[in-house]
Amino acid sequence: MEEETSSSGRSSPLRRELRPRKERRWESDTSSTSSPVRRGRGRGRGRPMGRAPTRGRAGGRRGRGGGQSDRGDSVAAVLQERQQNFRARIEEMSDEERKQLLIKAGELHPSLLLHIIDRPAPQGGFHPQPSAETPDWCTCLKCRDMPTQAERICCGRPANQCQSLLPDFNLLILDDLVLQVAQMYRQDVLALPQDEDYNKGKRHAAYRQYILWHHGRLGVGVRRIIPSCCVWAIRDKYPDQYGQYVGFVPSRLG
């Protein structure tokens, strides 16, 4: 016992180590002197668990916002570069090579080439063009009238920040190559034939892409109404030559 206590009555290091762990931790946290525990790295023991400094959280939000902006710029740059390369390759071709290219494109997608060559006027269809006037239920200023009341919805974003203007929308919903991959996958899984109508196939693929992108799932009974602004962005790029569109069809299971 002489080794455990000093003449001043204080506990020796050996006796201190025999104290309960909880008591020793409490003494280290509340001590006004520096200790090895307080100098160590990691979460400070004097800081409440599960709470990070306010400055760190705000910085994290700024970082994520900057990342999304950078990604949007990168997507736009990639699409623009691809378009420029495409135009440059056509400019380098001779007239005979361009002719053969058109013939080959017509063999692969006859409906697309006929739509470009003929361009018939819509007959009894419904395809309003962009105008300065927007419906009173629209906030993004990109919506157009829809044939049914159920389809008259907006993306809900502020003016000139429409969902259809996002770089991700341009890539995931409108890009030909992305839609081509989605079509090939669906045809392979469901053993479906290739779409004969090029634009119709791309429109329906774009609708499915939007539902998957915005709502996270597809399937039987999963029917969502796509905002008017996004619907017309899709139809403007992949129009029906007669302006005939199926529109929203409610689920039979609903």
From TrEMBL:
Annotated region described as Disordered, given as residue ranges: 1-74
Biased composition (Low complexity): 1-12
Organism domain of life: Eukaryota
Compositional bias of kind Basic residues: 38-48
A Pfam short name: P2RX7_C
Xref: InterPro entries: P2RX7_C (IPR046815)
Domain P2X purinoreceptor 7 intracellular: 127-248
PANTHER family noted in UniProt: UBIQUITIN-LIKE PROTEASE FAMILY PROFILE DOMAIN-CONTAINING PROTEIN, ZGC:195170
Protein name per its UniProtKB record: P2X purinoceptor 7-like
Gene name as annotated: LOC111134773
